[in-house]
Structures
1.
Amino acid sequence: MNIDIGNALAVEADPGLSEAALEALDDRVGAAHDRIAAGREAGEFGYAALNLPERTDPDAIREAVAPLSDSAAVLTVGIGGSALGAATVSTALGPSAVDHRVLDNVDPAHTQEVLDSLPLSETAVNVVSRSGTTAETLATFLVVREAMTEAGVDWTERTVVTTGAEGPLRELADEHALPVLDVPAGVPGRFSALSAVGLVPAAIQGHDLEGLLAGGQRAGDSLAPSLLDCPAYAYGAVAHGLEERGVTVNAVMPYAERLEPFAEWFAQLWAESLGKDGGGQTPARALGATDQHSQLQLYRAGPPDKLVTLVRPRERPELSVPEPDIDDLAYLGGHGLGELLDAEFEATEASLAAADRPNVRVEVDRLDAEAVGELLYAMEAACVLAGELGGVATFTQPAVEWGKRAARGLLGGGDFEEAAAVDEKTEREVE
Amino acid sequence: MNIDIGNALAVEADPGLSEAALEALDDRVGAAHDRIAAGREAGEFGYAALNLPERTDPDAIREAVAPLSDSAAVLTVGIGGSALGAATVSTALGPSAVDHRVLDNVDPAHTQEVLDSLPLSETAVNVVSRSGTTAETLATFLVVREAMTEAGVDWTERTVVTTGAEGPLRELADEHALPVLDVPAGVPGRFSALSAVGLVPAAIQGHDLEGLLAGGQRAGDSLAPSLLDCPAYAYGAVAHGLEERGVTVNAVMPYAERLEPFAEWFAQLWAESLGKDGGGQTPARALGATDQHSQLQLYRAGPPDKLVTLVRPRERPELSVPEPDIDDLAYLGGHGLGELLDAEFEATEASLAAADRPNVRVEVDRLDAEAVGELLYAMEAACVLAGELGGVATFTQPAVEWGKRAARGLLGGGDFEEAAAVDEKTEREVE
């Protein structure tokens, strides 16, 4: 992996990092790295995520899903960190004969549409919840189970469970002798892509799990006490240094359709880990070249509060543009679509620099398993570093509990004062 | 449509709007409304978009696509405003026997995957470009044409063109006697959803075009000189008033999977129209309930710089949750997934208010054609109002031209100084 921070330096961008600022930041990176290394060594909560490439056993995952190897489709039932990693990995690795679908919401119309579109007798259901009590996931799983039964399919033959060491989903798996995998201990959901949480669909699809883990391992091995020696830390440190200078938005813009879920995965990683104590960059999800025709006007000419993170593979399969029979388009002839996409990548990067807007280039060699594993791990390490530099509790998400209690109370699941607050809403309706 | 701004008032939110601020804002709304009404009356560039519901002729669209009524799929080839409106309308109106796919990028792998997945002999190609020279769209169209020819399909029998009065795409349509529809004069792409630009796929799918336009018309008829009498203006004015108080992010979070493209469409509308002169809220695209498990931590506990716009239909088809055989989940039994989703909507709204974070509730009765037309029109009118209040040139997007010239220069399409600037990139690589 290669990170180019040239366009985030003060010589190009405003706000940008001067050489002196970069040196000062690098001193802090050294101390943060020591903290991270100690956390990994001790297997501390959260830091333990950075040990996943060596902890995850691909054979155990393949063994668990072996009874489902005849599947035509995998349906992941999970939400947040229990779904985004799997979606990111499976999409990034390209199309498979085994379709991967995700139910990570409780929209009744959508749920019904997805169930109607799947060959249920050939579908593997991959249900993921650490606690085994996540309301959205369990409600959806109950609906999926019933749909399978109604279709004459024995759901116990077609379900794999990934959950924590205890809880109702674990009990259910034991009761019905379902294949069950462990959510790794000490790893928050958003950091668990390189474990069973993220790899079950890829395993059923026959993707290269060893390659994914080897890529993660490579990124792990590259962690070093200076941002100048470590791409992951360079990214995390620059993002944090810019946030200290008023850059409150991080727009992540991959130039590859297969990385569209990656931008969503990144958005959770960044928002839940760093969005606390009144700080934290807001991740904006974009896609190149498409969003040049949607967001670029704002990125170039709006408030100078954005870092644009441009991501691409250096190599990609090509598709030639036929010679145009239109004069104005003659210049496109002889080029490939990929060449056009790369020209737009470089043009957008330069156009942001010309407008003094900080941007960083993130490149992997090509979109294969190793590169995807490396990219995910590097962004996790960047996030952990940014959390250390910002002094926040990177691995918790306390602010979502209020709403969970309120929703549970509204549904009659207990007596919660938050539910009462819902009824006291200040209304000012305009019809 | 119903807008509830209660949680954006100073009694609930910080920043929030006091009653005095609301009154002062309302005086400005009166003047802005007069300007907008005059622009509509004179058919001025941009303002003319707000006349589309009465200008668009659904019969002309249906007539143009009549030869394609046997299609199993529609493939839209366009980018930005030439694609997002069509995607938004077709997805919001729910599944159809005619699948709608979009190629709005130049990713070679993805383009090949989409072409491989389509029954080309039964696919209608809907190519959309005002100028007829948009590089991404035309390059993709050349690739699609060739794929059809290679599959033994006469592309001239399966293509419908929507373009401006002049240009190479118009000439091509005339040469091959293709059905051709007009991009409406005076209407920027991002404001053209309720014209042929947004309605061709819906027409082929058999959706209710009259309903969409009637909904738009209803929203148009509701424009009035006070924000207290007009939901569209209430939304635009509150968003602008909050931006003046430091709310630089607008997170749009529909609680309906069918509105996921709507959030993207809104993001273009807001970013390209208002992101200029160093100002403009950054649109963040979210989806409820899913992003409660991804973004809500940041929205509640991060910087107080966000307006969260919560959107939902008041009625939706329901899907019952079967009685759980798990004690901890007994409370879910007897409820529907939609009830759960609505409880989460209200819980999230209250949880934001409890953290003093401003939020606005946008509700339509149900996701039918009228409501979708009304919602799109209302957001356009809100955006035009916000542009007036902010004193920006709402209908232009000058900042994207630099990159277009650079990309064209890089591909040998002319001598552009911007292309030379690309080669002068400041590099600082970390590997």
Note: The mean pLDDT of chain B is 97.
2.
Amino acid sequence: MPAALPVAGNRFVIVGGASLVGSATAGELLDHGAAEVVLFDNFAFGSEQAVAHLKDHPRLRLVRGDVMRLPDLLRATEGAAGLLLLAAYMTLSMDRDPWGGLDVNIRGVQNALEAARANRARKVVFASSNAVYGYGPKVAGELVEDTPFHSVGAPPAAILYGASKIIGEQLCRDYHRRHGLDYVVLRYSTVYGERQHYRAANALYIIETYDRVRRGERPQVFGDGSETKHFVYVGDLARANRMAFEAAATDVAVNCSGPAPITTLELVRLVTRLAGAGGHPAPEPEFVGEEPGKVRLTSGGAFRIAHEAAERAIGWRPLVDMEEGLRRLIAWREGKEGRGAG
Amino acid sequence: MPAALPVAGNRFVIVGGASLVGSATAGELLDHGAAEVVLFDNFAFGSEQAVAHLKDHPRLRLVRGDVMRLPDLLRATEGAAGLLLLAAYMTLSMDRDPWGGLDVNIRGVQNALEAARANRARKVVFASSNAVYGYGPKVAGELVEDTPFHSVGAPPAAILYGASKIIGEQLCRDYHRRHGLDYVVLRYSTVYGERQHYRAANALYIIETYDRVRRGERPQVFGDGSETKHFVYVGDLARANRMAFEAAATDVAVNCSGPAPITTLELVRLVTRLAGAGGHPAPEPEFVGEEPGKVRLTSGGAFRIAHEAAERAIGWRPLVDMEEGLRRLIAWREGKEGRGAG
């Protein structure tokens, strides 16, 4: 199994590592005996705070660098066996800055792959997205790995983001063909969990609902609440990243989604109930229209992002359901706020 | 009709102008009274030869510049009312140089749109491609403007090319939304005609068949010849470009294809017959496998690229069928070779 890369004893670089998924994956790799984990980040979106809990770990190293500067990557990846490529603009930041977003999501990936090739890394795991299936009413039913990219009616930034991820995947495939670089593409669905940020359009449903309920306001539902979302818990993704390195699989792209999809109304009710666990009676959600100027990603159809191919390719399936994952997210937020206030 | 831009009396810049489509469109715009046509090209793919017949035209100006250098574009587009964006790597060149290809097809488009915005140009026509529907056996039936992008099984360079055109279209849409820049996207099918080059994967069927027959060799068909191709004659496209400027249409993307699709076997037989018109009996085609290492784009399904939306949006439909278009292409080749030999 030449494409299997054991975690124990090997060095890993997480490009875009000072992040939700980066910090969780660093912990996962360190727990499984990685010789060293380098978190490479320019701290444009990443934060010291996201990795504060790991900072003093003896086998963790934080490197400030930029994916747009190949020399930064070449130095950071010397001696690395595996690279996890997370650095990316998502839809909201792509909307604010399409120049920077296309740079990072395309040239940044080329630079990271070139660094992996030049330093003879053994395997790359590329964080892609279910955005490669697009958005809108035609995205319905089971989303499987050969579902095409639907873009009609989606906001420009969402299409730029999805297409940039399609390109990132193909760049991996191209490096595999030309240079034999092994890789696994994981198409993440919307991530949530401890150290949640405010940058992912779909995860905003969770964190904004939580914030409103904590302020004593009624939670808001955009539209009629029947829209499907399919999230994945960050700890499940960290495990998927590790297993993608360890598996014999190469030259493959698979979905990583949580146990089941949820409607936005169910989600808002669930967050409301969990956030109010301290005592308040759960307030009823308020149904509101779209906020002007805000990019929200909607899909008219009910869909499920199939993750069965991931089980076949890397032996992974999601273990944490939304209720458990949200409990952990909320416990983390309350712990943080408790510490902040104390 | 604020988005209608009359050709007569106005200045136009054709970015990537020293080309098959660029030279034909320059002629079309000059014939319709354009005050000036600037052909902007870095001559990486474009050639002096492609525009030699126009070079001495009093209202034509050739500007050497690069789409990767915004200052070049800012200077060339001063006072321009309309920009036609042709500069692009196609699949074969994307395969040779994905770094340069993604630069030109994405950053180059951003630079050109930025120059149009900064110089207050009135309208942009962006040359997209039917590659935005992808390739492979799932691309079948009528390809209409909301057909999604299928990529499974296509070579990386073909997907990079298609996705880069999807991004180019969205960049136009984004500039329209943010800055009110009017635009029409024309999704060209494979172009052929006078001044045909060897850079388009699908047009190679025409030119290679012609070359073989002229050398007295049997023409070759890859596979069983049942594969569909849908070409468009360059003169029809030049007219489409002009009509896209003149039409009231804006913020729209439409297909531009020829009157009807053709199978590769029909195409090879037609070119063989026309190329042999000088006297030889038409040789039978030879059925061969794929050449290793050569990117050929195949579609298992029979398809037609619908052009009815273009008629509704800009009043255009194709007028030149394959037999007539190929006659013109061959007459041009024979004239050129005659002159070359004389």
Note: Residues 11-193+233-258+300-320 of chain B form a domain with the Rossmann fold fold (CATH 3.40.50.720).
